[in-house]
Design goal:
The structure holds two protein chains of two kinds.
Chain A lengths: L3 H13 L9 H21 L7 H10 L12 H15 L7 E9 L3 E6 L2 E6 L11 E7 L2 E7 L5 E9 L3 E8 L4 E8 L25 H12 L2 E9 L2 E8 L4 E5 L6 E6 L3 E9 L2 H5 L10 E2 L5
Parallel strand pairs in A: 8-14
Antiparallel strand pairs in A: 1-4, 1-13, 2-3, 4-5, 5-6, 6-7, 7-8, 9-10, 10-11, 11-12, 12-13
Helix pairs in contact in A: 4-5
Chain B lengths: L2 H26 L2 H17 L8 H14 L21 H4 L11 H5 L4 H12 L4 H8 L3 H21 L16
Helix pairs in contact in B: 1-2, 1-3, 1-6, 2-3, 6-7, 6-8, 7-8
Classes of the chains: A alpha+beta, B mainly alpha.
């Protein structure tokens, strides 16, 4: 049964919307938005993880030699465009909750060793040792990173977990050949994890491991000229942006939708592929660094 | 997104778009916000396009109500300009609803209700859905529809009465039966 209020409500609703018509192009607008979102979702799923992190990043920096140079004049416009797009990508809230997964393949002769707060890598193709790394697997989420180094045949060499704290890095490392492990606190590098980094020499990559650090890093290094845009290249069906730094020694292929890296090449010595994964319980468990019961603790290297 | 899908959507909107937009305008509180709401619902429809069997209107309508009842607009931080209208005569003009005649209208007061109450009232008195159908559209229980409708009507009556001479007093009990 209707009351006066209800009757009046119906009449007012009818009157208020009598002239409402669907504007032309609404379907197209919805399609465009949908399409844009679908591209971004696919890109995040397919492209790549965060994280050559403190450790992986430092190893890249140490292997690299020369300093980056400002971009050439012809590239300024392209670089400026990319910078503006990166700023846009920085506002993406979803990045913060992605788990970074990277797989890094080393050329024969790269011998990494765990040190507090990172990894030291020696590159000497003539000196292949049993400790030479074939590949490295890295998991990163927010302030934690776990790295595992393997020989080319898949034997574990060492594993390391690094957690970024206030002004310090907590490192736990396990070396499988010697059945030893150590734990250390070390000072946090000044640039690591900072929201806005200065110009890093030699194409260095220093990140705190979280996914959303990548667009910030790319933004700051393009802006200061340490990296520059070198074109586009199709990777996995995505037309990736090619960005180079360190006098061309370091090349990053960046997803144009998310500005997260898809691939990295460091002078042919190191190739990194990136993936971004959801923060599921299983993926987060990969950040743990279990110490086998039979291993004994030793002092950390200086 | 294939162009054929866009064409299908255009055809669908050509037939049913006006009706759906009228509902969206009432749910969202203004024409601009209504178009925005309908667009958001269309995007969700596109996402599910392949899995929807039969008439997509049912899905689209449910999505409109779900989005509206879940306070969809406040979740879109970048669209804060499309905030729900505040009480006041100037508000109807300020948000771009000039084309919609809202003078002395209960629709203007409807905007002051919380999203779920507004959605329940639109479902019951605009779409003339039963309580069960409204509950399905809003994704809630029949009891929730009853209470939201009852509270919404009570609030509308209070607002209407407090409007004084501009709004004539409304008599009669609020009812929400199917």
């Amino acid at each position: 049964m209707s009351t006066e209020l209800e009757e009046r409500l119906r009449a007012d609703m009818e009157r208020a919307t009598r002239d409402v018509r669907v504007p032309p192009g609404l379907a197209l607008k919805a399609c465009r938005h949908y399409h844009k979102r679908a591209i971004t979702t696919r890109a995040v799923a397919a492209a790549g993880t965060a994280a050559v992190l403190t450790a992986g990043a430092l190893s890249v920096a140490e292997v690299t030699g020369a300093f980056g140079r400002p971009a050439a004049g012809a590239q300024v416009r392209t670089t400026a465009y990319v910078i503006s797009r990166v700023e846009h990508a920085l506002s993406a809230p979803d990045l913060a909750n992605m788990v970074g997964y990277t797989r890094t393949v080393y050329r024969a002769g790269v011998t990494p060793r765990p040190v507090p707060g990172g990894v030291n890598s020696l590159a000497d193709p003539a000196a292949i040792s049993p400790q030479s790394a074939g590949y490295e697997v890295l998991w990163a989420y927010h302030r934690s990173t776990r790295l595992s180094f393997f020989t080319a045949s898949g034997q574990p060499v060492f594993g390391e977990r690094i957690t970024v704290g206030k002004g310090s890095l907590a490192t736990t490392a396990v070396t499988y050949a010697s059945h030893t492990w150590w734990r250390a606190q070390s000072a946090r590098p000044a640039a690591a994890g900072s929201a806005s980094q200065g110009c890093l020499p030699g194409g260095q990559i220093r990140l705190n491991g979280s996914a959303n650090a990548w667009p910030d890093f790319i933004h700051s290094q393009l802006a200061c000229g340490a990296y520059s845009v070198a074109g586009k290249q199709l990777i996995g069906g995505v037309e990736a942006l090619k960005i180079t730094g360190g006098s061309g020694q370091i090349t990053l292929w960046v997803n144009p939708a998310t500005y997260l890296p898809m691939r990295l090449d460091q002078g042919g010595l190191i190739q990194v592929s990136f993936q971004w994964l959801p923060a599921t319980r299983a993926n987060l468990a990969m950040l743990n660094m279990p110490v086998p019961a039979s291993f004994h603790q030793v002092a950390p290297p200086s | 997104m294939g162009s054929d899908r866009a064409a299908d959507l255009e055809s669908f909107l050509a037939v049913r778009g006006d009706v759906l937009l009228r509902t969206a305008v009432l749910l969202a509180g203004s024409r601009e916000a209504g178009e925005d709401l309908l667009q958001a619902a269309l995007e969700r429809l596109l996402r599910r396009w392949r899995t929807i069997e039969g008439d997509p209107e049912g899905y689209l309508r449910r999505t409109l109500y779900h989005l509206a009842a879940d306070n969809w607009r406040q979740q879109r931080a970048r669209r804060t300009r499309l905030r729900l209208l505040q009480p006041g005569a100037g508000a109807a003009v300020a948000d771009g609803t000039a084309e919609v005649d809202l003078r002395d209208s209960l629709v203007r007061l409807l905007r002051q209700l919380p999203p779920r109450q507004r959605a329940a009232i639109v479902a019951r008195y605009w779409e003339q859905l039963t309580e069960a159908e409204s509950a399905q559209a809003l994704g809630c229980s029949v009891g929730t529809v009853k209470s939201a409708t009852s509270r919404g009507l009570r609030r509308l009556r209070e607002l209407s009465e407090s409007a004084g001479s501009a709004e004539p007093a409304i008599q009669g009990p609020a009812r929400g039966t199917a």
